[in-house]
Specification:
It is found in: Cell membrane. Helices cover about 60% and strands about 5% of the residues. The chain is mainly α. It has a two-stranded antiparallel ribbon. A hairpin with a 2-residue loop joins strand 1 and strand 2. The longest helix is centred in the first third of the chain and has 26 residues, at about 55-80. It is globular and about 60 Å long.
């Protein structure tokens, strides 16, 4: 086994001002994702002409998607993972610093933000969805690393002879476990980003909905795979047939993602737009 690294929960501290690793992961994920989105929009070759979204529009969209992530992520956690507790303690819903965010809720929040912003600004919903999901693995990677640093959402118990098994300080059982946060960082972050980047390089952005569908489908697959190594939330445990909440919420993603991919292929490439000024 390996010893769990002794990380401090606070990443940056200046006097009374402190930023925790999880908050820093959100900040960096949004900033790096925004910079990557701008670089994709500037490359006309990837779109077969001028991108259907301007740089000014993507700058304005950052606030919308940030609110979608935070509000959706928190709402999803409350509804999907710990509803009885929050019914008894409604004030705790607003204590974001105590943790508790759901990817699936955050994703739905982003969907609402994409649809609303696209409608108000008269830009293609699928193309905005493509650019949003193309950069999303950056945030997922940093978020899972922050989970590991915080020693939370650890993996299932495993044989202590596993070279990278470790005991997490906050685990009351003190059993050797899989560092499943790092597994998920590799699959949901590095692997997903790489696959989408390759697809983009080969022209996927020219087919609206292709990257969006691929993200949804591949994330669903990697999340289900990762859940086999991750300890279920204590208040939920295993559900029907040994499934976890993360698995159940990911199954519809497989269907929606496959439908979007098929639709994008059959619809064909979008017609080049005039330059947005």
């Amino acid at each position: 086994m390996r010893d769990f690294p002794a990380f401090k929960p606070i990443a940056i501290e200046i006097g009374p001002f402190a930023i925790r690793w999880y908050a820093l992961a959100y900040i960096c994920g949004i900033v790096f994702g925004w910079l990557y989105a701008r670089s994709l929009l500037k490359n006309q070759r990837l779109w077969g002409g001028p991108a259907p979204i301007s740089l000014v529009q993507i700058d304005d969209f950052i606030l919308w998607v940030t609110l979608g992530i935070i509000l959706g992520g928190r709402t999803g956690y409350v509804l999907f993972y710990n509803l009885p507790f929050f019914i008894d303690h409604p004030a705790a819903i607003f204590k974001l610093w105590e943790g508790g965010m759901s990817f699936h809720g955050g994703f739905l929040g982003c969907v609402v933000a994409v649809m609303w912003f696209a409608y108000r600004n008269k830009i293609p919903i699928l193309s905005l969805g493509d650019i949003t999901t193309a950069v999303a693995p950056v945030g997922l990677l940093l978020g899972r690393i922050a989970n590991f640093i915080n020693g939370e959402l650890w993996g299932r118990a495993t044989d202590p002879s596993l070279p990278w098994a470790m005991v997490f300080p906050n685990d009351p059982t003190q059993l050797p476990r899989h560092p499943s946060q790092l597994y998920e960082a590799g699959m949901e972050g590095i692997l997903l980003f790489t696959v989408l980047a390759i697809m983009i390089r080969f022209g996927a952005l020219k087919r609206p909905g292709m990257i969006l569908g691929a993200f949804i489908l591949i994330y669903g697959l990697t999340r289900i795979a990762g859940e086999h190594f991750r300890e279920p939330d204590a208040q939920l445990g295993f559900l029907w047939g040994g499934l976890t909440m993360g698995m159940l919420l990911s199954i519809p993603m497989l269907i929606v993602g496959a439908i979007l991919i098929v639709w994008a292929v059959r619809r064909g490439a979008a017609k080049p737009l005039q330059a947005i000024r």
